[in-house]
Design brief:
It is built from six helices and eleven strands. Strands 1, 2, 3, 4, 5, 9, 10 and 11 form an eight-stranded mixed β-sheet that branches. A three-stranded antiparallel β-sheet has the order 6-7-8, with no helix packed on it. Helix content is about 25%, strand content about 30%. It has about 210 residues and is α/β, with parallel strands linked by helices. It is globular. Strand 10 and strand 11 form a beta hairpin. It has one domain: Rossmann fold. One of its GO terms (biological process) is methylation.
Length: about 210
């Protein structure tokens, strides 16, 4: 019987978010799909997808990060055009409406500069997503830590490790779902990290 060595897993999957890996196991990301990683960084969630025949695109504010993800793509998926990966603010994506089967936005939304910026990003992710397409987002929220965080102003909180983050609450998430026409593929799942922060996974389908 053939066994794949455990030591080969990093070469196959890189540093993929375990919650995104769960979506792969559920068959929601398939070969040939067009996928945007919004806030892709250097491509930590793209290592496997680039090798699996997914038509990967990426956007990030950092030109250095985009250079790195282009280099990664040139090694793992040399047929993908370098122009698939762009420097852009996520509230002004340079892509056409309804272009992607899947949009990822992992560990990004809590860096929004204002509530307007947060909402603008989510609306852009909706705009470029095809009807029936999946949005996978993971971001820090107040869910599970209500009243326990150091509030600076509005929805901005000082985190225990120093920086000030924009933290959505469940009410804001629900309002955006209703406004934009998202149906949850899964319940909101929130992980508490040592009483210091929470990370919420939001997996929804565009229905209008």
């Amino acid at each position: 019987m053939f066994h794949i060595p455990l030591s080969s897993l990093p070469a196959q999957f890189g540093d993929i978010d375990i919650y995104l890996f769960d979506q792969l196991l559920k068959g929601r990301i398939q070969r040939g799909m067009k996928l945007l990683d919004a806030g892709c960084g250097a491509g930590r969630n793209l290592h496997y997808l680039l090798q699996a025949g997914v038509k990967v695109y990426g956007a990030d504010l950092s030109a250095e990060a985009i250079d790195k993800v282009r280099n990664l793509a040139s090694e793992l998926a040399p047929n993908l055009p370098a122009r698939n990966f762009v420097v852009a603010d996520l509230d002004a994506l340079p892509f056409e409406d309804a272009q992607f089967d899947v949009v990822l936005c992992s560990a990004v939304l809590h860096f929004a500069r204002s509530e307007e910026h947060f909402n603008g990003i989510v609306r852009e992710l909706w705009r470029v997503l095809k009807p029936g397409g999946m949005l996978f987002a993971r971001f820090s929220t107040t869910i599970g830590l209500e009243g326990k965080l150091q509030q600076v102003e509005g929805r901005f909180y000082r985190m225990s490790h120093g920086p000030v983050w924009f933290l959505a609450d469940e009410k804001l998430v629900v309002e955006l779902e209703k406004e934009l026409g998202f149906a949850r593929l899964e319940p909101l799942k929130t992980v508490l990290v040592e009483q210091e922060r929470t990370m919420t996974t939001w997996v929804v389908r565009k229905v209008v």
